Amino acid sequence: MSLSRHPATLHRSLPELPSLPRPLYGRVESLTNRALTFRHTHPWVQLSYAIAGVLEVQTAGARFVAPPQRAVWVPAGVEHQVFSSPRTEMRSLYIDGSAVPWGSPDCRVLAVSSLLRELIRGFSALPAEYDEQGAPGRLAAVLLDELRAAPDVALMLPLPQDARLREVCQGLEDATLRQLGLGEWGERLGVSEKTLSRLFLRETGLSFRMWRQRQRLLDALTPLEQGERVTDVALACGYDSLSAFIAAFRRQFGATPGEFFRE
Fold this sequence. Notes:
The chain is of the alpha+beta class. Helix content is 37%, strand content 21%.
């Protein structure tokens, strides 16, 4: 999921859905190996949830990564791109803003409880024009209550706007460059290490070391979800040892890779 993608902006609604048939609408999608590489917006809130595979939503300011049991909240009007790992099974909720006055104005990743997962699955199977006064309407109300209570999780990577930092971030996606330190990047860009360090902290809220570590760990989620060996993933992400990778993963996500994907 490279940061080097910068396709032209496209503002659109889904062609078959010019408006929501109900304040809460569910959609089922199977994405065999799909990158929605256009930027777009929706006039409604979107909740993207993968029951299998890993989803990524990228805005101008951050990457939001959602493996199973997590979902990405995208507010109305926020320009974004969506990427998915192979064989992703996605459930999307489209929500009229009037139904979620408590909703966050910012993109975020939410934890999906077992109850919320089943509510999303059940609701997504309903017809578009379900009975709002009957059982489907009550199901929608419970779903929104559970969604309101869903906690945020730390699966976001802030993206800098400075062109020099963007070049560094794009370079860190390259296996031949990911081990370069900030001083070496400074030499390449003709700027001091101190300046780059100060810019990283100012634009992302993270030091260069912490930003790079979070990027590596987020990039590890897709191969881990697909069943690749943890040792192979650790080495591919630039870690010298399995123990160092697991320790960093636990610090970031509060669980080992095995525990994370068993939740």
